[in-house]
Amino acid sequence: MEDVVKSPVDTLTPMGVMVLALLRESDMHPYEMVRLLRARHDDRLIAITNGTLYHTVSRLQKTGLIDEVGIDRDGNRPERTTYTLTDAGRDTVIAWVRRELPRVDRETDFRIALAESHNLERDDVRTLLQERRAALVETHDLHRHGLDKARAKGVPAQVLVEIEREEVLLGAELGWLDSLLARLDGDDLPWGPTAFTDTDRYLAQRKAAQQ
Fold first, then answer.
1. What is the pTM of this model?
2. Which of 55, 71, 56, 72 is nearest to 21 (CA)?
3. Are 202 and 36 in contact (CB under 8 A)?
4. Terminal alpha carbon distance of the chain
5. DSSP state string for 53-87
6. How large is the average pLDDT for residues 43-58?
7. Is 74 left (phi over 0), alpha (psi -120 to 50) or beta?
8. Does the pLDDT value for residue 23 go beyond 50?
9. With bands split at pLDDT 50, 70 and 90, how would you rate the model's confidence at 199?
10. Taking the domain 8-115+194-210, which CATH number applies?
């Protein structure tokens, strides 16, 4: 039986997505990546360790998604290899975000896709989130109907608390998602990499991460 060859999108890890997204902004070395991710508090999404990030960078280079562009030998600091995003890497991170944004079964991947969704066009994001909304409505209805049936059968309330929590959270997310879709339909939410207005803050953050 022949081995199934997986696409780069299928093998991309959440950390890999974050590295590729960083390199969409600019070429940088792994040490800067770690500091920038922590400065932006991206460790709220996944655990960020030096070892994991360096291993991820190595894997991304081997698969042709990033490439070396230079080595910094400044002063007494250890050598720092700077990486750039290849065309394949650029296409892969966009494909991954598009795949994960509408899904409702992988919470961590969705949060990362949402955090990087500004790399997509506004219309793409709106369409993908509308797909997610349809899936959330279906899941929410299943939880609500399941609760109604369980209560009608006299299932003790104490064994339903987790389902009750999930039903409430799904309802809350639907409310938030409707609000976001409305903002995407209007003009009050600038969108895309060129829409950022805090250029000075961003440059200061990048400079601090490079030290």
1. 0.86
2. 56
3. no
4. 51
5. HHHHHHHHHHTTSEEEEEEE--TTSPPEEEEEE-H
6. 92
7. beta
8. yes
9. low
10. 1.10.10.10
